[in-house]
Amino acid sequence: MTFQKSESAGYLTNHMARLFANGLQRRIQPLGLAPAQFMTLLELWDEDGLTQKQLLERLDVEQATMANTLRRMERDGWIVRRPHPDDGRAHQAWLTPKARAVRDAATDAADAQNGVALTDLSDEERATFLDLMRRVIHAMQVWEGKEAR
Amino acid sequence: MTFQKSESAGYLTNHMARLFANGLQRRIQPLGLAPAQFMTLLELWDEDGLTQKQLLERLDVEQATMANTLRRMERDGWIVRRPHPDDGRAHQAWLTPKARAVRDAATDAADAQNGVALTDLSDEERATFLDLMRRVIHAMQVWEGKEAR
DNA sequence: GTTTTTTACATAGCACGCTATATTAACAAG
DNA sequence: CTTGTTAATATAGCGTGCTATGTAAAAAAC
């Protein structure tokens, strides 16, 4: 009858996410980079000049969260924000040379942390794990969508 | 070569954890309860009168994190803190009647959120998922331990 | 063409995680 | 018994997430 935390997907997910974040943070902190900034850079490395709106859609965070992350990233010299040429409300985020320079080191750090986390899993188990996570994410997103009506 | 976020266990974990936290938050907010407070109550429902040190060990959070959570929980009337009878440095956290009263509603909310998240998984897949998460958590904890030396 | 609504962004305020540091009590050494 | 160290808690400061609200530009309605 007692709620067993070790049987709760949410509890385990929370714990796992904190361990991931701590490990990543430790690895990228020497670069002067923070986890959410790294996550945002992943998108900009893939496509530069995105607007705040585009970024928050791709990363699935709230608008205010992205606004704050972008402000810190501009402060720390990872991006510059310039007004959008066709839309007076929007701003585009552009990578600085410093941000392009740190790409390899940062993705290596993330790869290393993933490697540590998955050490005890076989290749097949790793694939299963990613698949299950994607399906769980999808289920919650769908449900959120339903809730919105 | 490009870092693929949908292939990164850490990225997916972070996303999944945010969805879990948002869902749980929405469900327990009517009770006046926040996620970390719920997590802490899980321990105290199981064993009342724990010290801050015992709680942070069981929940694997930093001491300062637990100190702040306990302060908010006392402020919100979930616990009272009294000096430990045998150790002048320590305090014990004791549940209020209000905290005992909310137990069923809160665990039901957590169960419901887990249910939504796992809708698309079979019983066997759910078991596999929990098992994989436990092993990933374990791997990162072991590695952290090694790092500490 | 003016008015209304929607959209993009900013800001305030809070929870919760972290590191780093201070404080005080307990314990160990001498 | 005094001194030095360890252990339990508190506090400051910050990043990242959230909700709620404000503002200005764009788009839609009329």
Automatic annotation (TrEMBL), chains A, B:
Residues 9-138 form the HTH marR-type domain. One of its GO terms (molecular function) is DNA-binding transcription factor activity. InterPro entries: HTH_MarR-typ, MarR/SlyA-like, Tscrpt_reg_MarR-type_CS, WH-like_DNA-bd_sf, WH_DNA-bd_sf. Keywords: DNA-binding, Transcription, Transcription regulation. SMART domains: HTH_MARR. One of its GO terms (biological process) is response to stress. PROSITE patterns: HTH_MARR_1, HTH_MARR_2. This is MarR family transcriptional regulator.
